[in-house]
Amino acid sequence: MLRQLILALVLGICAAQPARADLFGSSESQKLVSEGHALQAAGKYKEALDKFEAARNLSPDAASPLSAAAYLLQTLVPGLPEDAAAKARQQAEGLARAALKLATNDPLAAEVLRMQADPAGVPDYKPSEAAAKAYAEGEVLFHKGEYDAARAKYREAQLADPRFASAFLMEGDTYFMEKNWAAAEMLFHKATQVDPQSAQAWRFLADTQARLGNRAGLEQAALQAVAVQPSQIPSWERLAAVAKIDGKPLTRLQLVRLASVSLDPKTGKAVVTLAEQFKGAKVEDNSDYAVWLAYALAQANAMTTAAKEGRTLSPFAQELAGWNIAMKVAAELAEKGAPPLSSPVLLALRGLKSADDLEAAVLLLMYREAYRPELEAWKKAHPDGIRKFVAAYQLMP
Predict the structure, then answer these.
(1) Residues 6 or more apart from 66 whose CB is under 8 A from it?
(2) Which residues fall within 8 angstroms of residue 97, CB to CB, at 6 or more apart?
(3) Fewest beta carbons within 10 Å, which of 81, 146, 159, 233?
(4) Per residue in 46-87, pLDDT tens?
């Protein structure tokens, strides 16, 4: 029964989320999307987009044709001229958001928005030319469903460049597609050894542990995936599967910042911007407004103080400074009997028990790649910190 339960949870992470049909569409639509991926792997981007569009026409309620097109466009952005890049980025965002309206668990759509929100991601490993060529040929064969032939190409890539983790990962994926869980597990584990910083490798290993009914293995691989890059929602969804098995489902924070700060390059002064919804609001009448204002002013003060002292304030230090003051203001407002907070985000953060937990929340639930130095230091100081934080608060980004 446990094996069946884990399998059901990983295939449809939460029962409250849309049915798989909303994500994938009909079998004919899925076939067209796969053909599009094969064309994309071969560098035939226009033809790939045509396949995704044809799939959308067949299954207009399916998310995957939209997210596939969004991901393709987003991956092209870095190599395009400025004007074309801006247009492609806008189109990718629109497609990704449309996909998430159809299926909130669409991993490609979530990844597109993550890439846009935090462009400074971890650079991909650059394999040798021979390995890259064999791998690209394997990708085309994989998306055609020719798994034996694809495996031969992935192995060719491994021999050409033993440090190319994706070649091991995708060979494992051919076995996964054939439901050969033991072989898939072996290759996914190898990929994590070659590149421990591959969140995708840890996620694939987690999926295999789920199929094998290994709850402990699923949790450990999911924790490793989150630890590599906490902003990737698909990693958290694997961890959410474990939490649901334990009867403690996770709640998404879904932070949308309603205040921001920037430095005027001419004057060096901090400029605070608040969301339109707070126009005309008064601190004494709107506690949410008061907390967001405190968040922004605290950041502005930290930035200007650092600038005057000739110091460089890290993005993480700036973010944490804002939330430290914001939560102190929230506590003071509650003590004074001010109107209660209404934002689920602020209520969740207000529920954190200590400054240390707030630091963990910023690193795990609001992660940006610019926080990398502080994240690595925190993980070293708290080797079991992610599991403990999730167990205590049942939150995910």
Answers:
(1) 52, 56, 95, 96, 98, 99, 102, 109
(2) 109, 113
(3) 81
(4) 999 999 999 999 899 999 999 999 999 998 988 888 888 899
